[in-house]
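Let's practice the habit of predicting before peeking. Look at the sequence and jot down your guess about where helices and strands might fall. Then scroll down.
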Amino acid sequence: MQKSISLKLSSLKKIKEEESSELRFSLRYFRVTDSVAVIDEYPLQQSADSRDKSLHLLRNILRALNIEVEVLSPELFSWPLIEGLTEETDSANAAKQALQGFIAGRQEQDGFKNLIVFVGVIDDLLVGPERAENRRDYQIENSDTFITITQSLQSMLSFPDLKKDAWHQLQPVLLRIQSAE
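Done guessing? Here is the structure:
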């Protein structure tokens, strides 16, 4: 009996580990200007206070990039799209394809030239191709759109020293914005 209970507990632990290892994330997409859009990966259980602090930081970053914005209205994207969708497939690959489709759709709709992505968990889904000079700031193949990847707003709020790294990573965006003016 003891051995049976132990095996059941072991099986339950294994099931829980598999469930918790499934890729899950939530994003907010913002069309900021005609040429700039932002994606922010945020914690799945983010509080209203934390959300407000993230938006305040985002406004400050945009202001530093010489972009003034009154209202930031997000469009939400979460993975998995529906529960159980990726049980039969590679979750990371399916998430990457869905995310690329989401970005391509928003680029076609909004026409931005610079997409700034603040991420933590999913940066591997977005880094540029191996051959790119800079895999965190690269031009999408056959496009005039650039993707710049840096730390999530939430991680910068938790670890303020990351703001310096993020600002350094955003310099190419600032140069592109300035040269377009």
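How did you do? The mean pLDDT is 83.
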